[in-house]
Amino acid sequence: MNIFHLPDLGEGLPDAEIVEWHVNVGDTVSLNGPLVSVETAKAILDIPSPASGKVTHLYGAINDIVKTGDPLVEFEGEQQDAGTVVGEVEINDTIIEESSSSKKSASFNAKATPAVRALAHRMAVDLAMVTPSGHDGLIQSDDVRRVARILADVGPIEPLRGVRRAMARNMSQAHAEVAPATVVDDADISLIKNTADITPRLIRALITACKKEPALNAWYDSHAVGRRVLKSVHLGLAVDAPQGLFVAVMRDLDNSDLDNIKAKLAELKNKIEKRSFSADELRGYTITLSNYGSIAGRYAMPVILPPTVAIIGAGKAREEAVVQKGQVVIKNRLPLSITVDHRVVTGGEATRFLKTLILDLQQAT
Q1: Is the predicted pLDDT of residue 271 greater than 90, yes or no?
Q2: For burial by CB atoms within 10 Å, which of 11, 90, 99, 340 has the most?
Q3: Which residue in 361, 154, 57 sits closest to 353, CA to CA?
Q4: Long-range contacts of 165-170 (CB under 8 A, 24+ apart)
């Protein structure tokens, strides 16, 4: 038999979710013909057939999560899938076993009698979730039944999939690695005539600030304890979608003017609506912008995703009374927040970046 395994779809993604099969068992497919659509961390990708032949088995149903290197499709014939690294499946199996083993040991360390463990197994209750009421932390049968009733009331767990699953992974990584430091300030945007969509001006100001203080447009390698300060500005734009948070990339912005930025934004919005990103359009950004103020909120502590070292957040603009030259005047003020990875970026670099950002936004054009 000829088995095709799920290939590495980029950035070492550990798995993908099956969205749609384009073939059925018994179908004959041609080389590079449509085989299956899968959803990775941030995009839906179409995987073409690696060979011509008759499909004899599909390893997975719609909504199943397949790990990179695991079997995906079986064809007639004896030739093995040349596109899969030998031993990759074995490596993945080892990881799964270790993960499973870790869960068992965590459950085993819970203090409970064999009878209570059997009850928990029968009622599908993880002992790690149970608060013990017995002496010296011993879990009682009533404790297990109480948790079982709670779980029955709230319903079954909803597995995180696709973009939301990736968001959970990324946030856990960020929390474990990054040393965040946040600074906030306001920009007076009263001179800007059209503030209904402030995003193009925010991007232009960010580009200007990257040129003034390039330390924030960088990648940090925690293993090598080194950074790469980058000349090109590849902006990651945080996008709020029903499936969860993902980051779309606007590339090569370092020499873009306002008109060029608007054109690239229009193209990006079209792709967001159609969800028609390629894998390359969702990775490789050097700095991130989150315009959460388009919904609500003033200041925030945006989360940095490694290996980037900075994220800029823009809150909801509001009219505010301020004192200017001894007079109280009404100004349109835009709240700004910058979170940096303090392992790499100094407070001076962060505040100089913020100052440049504000000065650009306070210009009329």
Answers
A1: no
A2: 340
A3: 361
A4: 165/17, 165/41, 166/40, 166/41, 166/42, 166/244, 166/246, 167/244, 167/245, 167/246, 169/41, 170/41, 170/305
Residues 177 and 311 grouped into a single domain: yes
**Cβ burial, residue 125 (10 Å; 0-12/13-18/19+):** buried
User: Helix, strand or coil for residue 278?
Assistant: coil
Q: Nearest Cα to 222, choosing from 181, 179, 183?
A: 179
User: b or e along 318-335 (b: 16 or more beta carbons within 10 Å of the residue's beta carbon)?
Assistant: eeeeeeeeeeeeeeebbb
Phi, psi dihedrals of residue 58, rounded to the nearest 5°: -110, 125
Interval 183-196 mean pLDDT: 91
Percent of the chain surpassing pLDDT 90? 56
CA 216 to mean position of chain CA atoms? 20
Cα dihedral angle (232, 238, 242, 244), rounded to 10 degrees?
A: 90
Pick from 22, 53, 76: which residue ends a domain?
A: 76
The whole domain housing 185 covers: 165-362
**For the whole model, what pTM was predicted?**
0.69
Cα 233 to Cα 215, 241, 345, distances in angstroms: 12, 24, 17
Query: Residue 42 corresponds to which tokens in the numbers above?
Result: 């941030």
* Cβ contact 245:167 at 8 Å: yes
Query: Using CA atoms, how far apart are residues 273 and 295, in angstroms rounded to an integer?
Result: 18
CATH number at residue 28: 2.40.50.100
Find the CATH number of the domain harbouring 218: 3.30.559.10
Residues 6+ apart with CB under 8 A from 9: 16, 38, 40, 45, 68, 279
Other beta carbons within 10 angstroms of residue 210's beta carbon come to 26
Is pLDDT above 90 for 355? yes
Residue pair 362/341 in contact (Cβ under 8 Å)? The answer is no
Give me the helix-helix angle, 199-212 and 347-361, nearest 10°. Answer: 140
